[in-house]
Amino acid sequence: SNDADVAWYRVARDQSSMMESSLDRAATRILKEQGDVRASRRGSAARRAAAAKTILEITEGIRSLVESEETGEPQLLRFFKENPCAAFLLRPTLLRQWREVPLQDFGQLDFVVSDVTGRFLAIEIESPRQKLFSSKDELLRPVHHAIDQVETWVKGISKAPHAARVRFGTDDAESIDQLVVVGRSAELCNDARVRRWRDWSHKGAEL
Q: Helix, strand, coil: what percent of the chain each, to 5?
């Protein structure tokens, strides 16, 4: 699959360039994150092949889930939990990840990941079936709620610095990017919707 090949090389390229390491090390990180320790100890060519196969299977698994009419948020979250390496598709420079992350009274997120640059990404995953826009091309309330959830959590870092330092090793809210994964891109079908989508992405949480 060309899409899978692109996904694999994107992950491998970013891992290798940011860490100034080889594609072999990128492959090793991917396999270890997925829990395939045996494959991570193979020779260079075998490691790359195993990592490429892993990314291929994960990419196709996510595509199958998103295209299914029965898939909601619980199914996607279960897939990410069972396939830790899927987080590389959200942050190719991933270094570490935390799942189901509470922060005192500031809510809970589905994921937080750190990367090799020292930055973090706060992630909230919603259903691919969730409608994004009203008939007037306004973002719907559930989408606003997901955005608010991430923004509230990130703002909580500066209000609960000790808890953040203990859990993540940082209390710098400015080092945390925000991502909301929701809906289908097919709804971005006119200029007004694209403009609103971009506006929200530029304000804080990337959509």
A: 60, 15, 25
